[in-house]
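Hi team,

Filling in the usual template for the complex we talked about on Friday. All components are listed, including any nucleic acid strands or ligand strings, so the model treats them as one assembly.

SUBMITTER: L.P.
PURPOSE: interface mapping
COMPONENTS: three
RESIDUES: 380
SEQUENCES:
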Amino acid sequence: MKRVVFHIDVNSAFLSWTAVKILKEGGTQDIRTIPSVVSGDPKDRRSVITSVSVPAKKLGIKAATPVSMALRTCPNLVIVRGDFDWYRQCSRGFIEICKSYSPVLEQFSIDECFLDMSFRLYGKGPKEVAESLKKQIFNTLGFTVNVGIGPNKLLAKMASDFEKPDKVHTLWEEEIEEKMWPLGVRDLLWVGRKTEEKLLSYGLRTIGQLATADLSYLKRIVGERGAQQLHDSANGIDNSPVETEHPDAKSYSAERTFPKDLSDPKDIDRALFKVACIVCHRIRKDMVKASTVSIFIKFTDFSTLQKQCSLPQPTDITALILNASRGLLSEIWDGERPLRQIGLGLTKLSRDSAEQMSLFEDPKLDYYRKWDEDYDKKQS
DNA sequence: TCTGGGGTCCTAGGACCC
DNA sequence: TCTGGGGTCCTAGGACCC
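RESULT (copied from the run log):
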């Protein structure tokens, strides 16, 4: 049986979803039709763009650029602030419709999913089914998607990235040479800026060149594993299944970039306290405990440092995690050099609910737990 | 011009054990 | 006394994704 995989990708997701919300609330301007972007706090000069309308894209504005920079390119750019709760609602509706086309669905991110359609084409051609899925999403939810169709996840995802928005594309094995090989290496999944630079310096520009390159030559450029991965991807080889189960998170983290770089230890400690509260609240909500704490800091020049340590036993208590992270911070920061950002990460997670009570438990723990309980109540 | 936030996975060196 | 080699765990750093 021929394998058929769909990759469905919401076009400029945050921007489309915001547009739908504005229209729903009685607004008359559809921001998808004008140069517009979604960003974090638009007043904060440091916030970056997270989603770009098609007209703005045509003016050369790209995601992840600072708002201030985009405004210089396009002074009358419309900037709207993101609304994550609304995005989650839109995402749920989107996933629900997709699932009605095949239960074998893997959610890849808030606005993308894979469907294994191998057994679900009801005698119709895959393109026809994709068109009706696309239409149903638009008619029901009011936003457009791209659908990529291929024999595996990799090719389906590559296909959905072809011309946008509101399009269905196929990328079958016999189309690889024509549709994928002329593209630049950067267009290949898992090739980022650094890998692109390396490949270009060896004269490898297109996906086709990667596909036909000698494997041992590639190994010298990007290492053993990377070479195999690149070579397989460029040839359209991908045997990974569409995974319906979302694996448990392996880490939790929170980070904050300050409006202005900070060097006063009191300010830094306040920030550390805040990120600790946020990330600990999240692990408690998910009934997870962590036994490794990491801290990361970013300096004015964007260089970063990080340090981690193991706790004697897994915990979800803010005070203990904060205490550990304060110790780590003092080891990597001199207390003077200005910091741009601070972050706190938790790994080595355990999910067994059995409380490991120490015989000599610190009597303060009860007080800490009570404090966390109150904090969690205030957040809900 | 001046660069967010939240994740996953890989690599490489050192410690430690057998 | 000086030696091989493999496995595992920990840590720091980096690349990539959306």
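MY TAKE: The two ends of chain A are 49 Å apart (CA to CA). The longest strand of chain A covers residues 304-315.

Thanks, L.
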